[in-house]
Fold this protein.
Amino acid sequence: AQRVTQPEKLLSVFKGAPVELKCNYSYSGSPELFWYVQYSRQRLQLLLRHISRESIKGFTADLNKGETSFHLKKPFAQEEDSAMYYCALWGTGRRALTFGSGTRLQVQP
Amino acid sequence: NAGVTQTPKFRVLKTGQSMTLLCAQDMNHEYMYWYRQDPGMGLRLIHYSVGEGTTAKGEVPDGYNVSRLKKQNFLLGLESAAPSQTSVYFCASRRSAGGPEHNEQFFGPGTRLTVL
């Protein structure tokens, strides 16, 4: 069975501080990992995916297969980063994403 | 393109009432999904469809039924609503099976349902 774990329900930081949102997964095959973001009263939208190796809005995430992790990082948090962040996994042969329980990021001024 | 749309946006039901949530997408996507979002539990898959006329159960299908009569529409039905079905419901769609570029799911704005 595949599973995504986001251990923190809430992460509160001050503006300008570094941010790391944790995501661990369990999957026996070769997974694809995603981060989705949901701003207040908006729909979920894709933030980034590990295969693209891109940086979006200053966020990056590296897939660590040894630690089965896909943590989301940003060196300097901004107030507009405040949102709900979901890590999601796509397993080979599966037909839908499996989501973690989400972490709410609060960036204080 | 409107993307993925959902109707209604809000609804309040009494226990035992029935209702249908409508999801529509104009991107010609093959796959469509219904999730529910609850505090502390993230998004959980209710049902999904890999094409017109086909549906399959997800993680939490009990109490729900779905239909995909047209490719662009995916309906979620509650036959006899219960307070445990109070939630925010999200519809999503995906282009098709295939390479990694096909795996992004596009979400609707959500339907907030309260069952009293």
